[in-house]
């Protein structure tokens, strides 16, 4: 099998159910999810397997689920096959958020990406995830999508924030507080 096909040389690409322009909102959405998946893989490379075995397992699951998100976003019409992303996947993210958040100290102020090497990598994932979510919102204005993908990305960005804080905590680093931040978060109960 050859890697190049030359079928995209005219500015079109294949999606499930047809061909669209390479800058179509659908391609922008699943392309940004693909970009996020690459950043997740990069962030995993910063994690010490001895300290972060659980996180590495969860991130690998997320990489597979991001492929599912991209697959659902590449689907022009839902009648081609059932969607892959579902509400159970979103609930699983919420479970992980609660689990990792329980490890970290209370936060009351905005924080900046920083601390250990792995923490800012998680913040990069968080910001790319937010952009992917924005691209999905744009797509949903004009085309049919699996709304669970939007919910998944929204919750996933919250998980990346929590993982960034957990990474700092496990590495013995403090979060970098934004100096001019007022107290904006309530303490955990």
UniProtKB/TrEMBL annotation:
GO annotation terms (biological process): cobalamin biosynthetic process
A Pfam family the protein falls into: Cob_adeno_trans
Annotated keywords: ATP-binding, Cobalamin biosynthesis, Nucleotide-binding, Transferase
Domain of life of the source: Bacteria
Enzyme class: transferase
Occurrences of domain Cobalamin adenosyltransferase-like (ranges): 3-167
EC number annotated for this UniProt entry: 2.5.1.17
Pathway listed: Cofactor biosynthesis; adenosylcobalamin biosynthesis; adenosylcobalamin from cob(II)yrinate a,c-diamide: step 2/7
Keyword Calcium set for record: no
Annotated catalysed reactions: 2 cob(II)yrinate a,c diamide + reduced [electron-transfer flavoprotein] + 2 ATP = 2 adenosylcob(III)yrinate a,c-diamide + 2 triphosphate + oxidized [electron-transfer flavoprotein] + 3 H(+); 2 cob(II)alamin + reduced [electron-transfer flavoprotein] + 2 ATP = 2 adenosylcob(III)alamin + 2 triphosphate + oxidized [electron-transfer flavoprotein] + 3 H(+)
GO molecular function, one term: corrinoid adenosyltransferase activity
Record's keyword annotation contains Transferase: yes
Subunit relationships: Homotrimer.
Database matches in PANTHER family: CORRINOID ADENOSYLTRANSFERASE, CORRINOID ADENOSYLTRANSFERASE MMAB
Protein family (similarity comment): Belongs to the Cob(I)alamin adenosyltransferase family.
NCBIfam families according to UniProt: PduO_Nterm
Protein name: Corrinoid adenosyltransferase
């Amino acid at each position: 099998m050859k890697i190049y096909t030359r079928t995209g040389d005219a500015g079109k690409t294949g999606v499930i159910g047809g061909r669209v322009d390479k800058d179509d909102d659908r391609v922008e959405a699943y392309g940004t999810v693909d970009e996020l998946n690459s950043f997740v893989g990069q962030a995993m490379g910063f994690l010490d397997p001895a300290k972060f075995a659980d996180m590495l397992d969860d991130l690998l699951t997320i990489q597979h689920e991001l492929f599912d998100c991209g697959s659902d976003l590449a689907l022009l019409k839902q009648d081609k096959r059932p969607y892959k992303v579902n509400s159970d996947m979103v609930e699983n993210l919420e479970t992980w958020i609660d689990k990792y958040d329980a490890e970290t100290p209370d936060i009351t102020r905005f924080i900046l990406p920083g601390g250990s090497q792995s923490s800012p990598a998680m913040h990069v994932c968080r910001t790319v995830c937010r952009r992917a979510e924005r691209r999905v919102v744009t797509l949903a204005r004009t085309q049919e999508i699996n709304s669970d993908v939007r919910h998944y990305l929204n919750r996933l960005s919250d998980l990346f924030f929590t993982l960034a804080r957990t990474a700092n905590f496990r590495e013995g680093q403090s979060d970098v507080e934004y100096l001019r931040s007022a107290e904006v978060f309530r303490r955990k109960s």
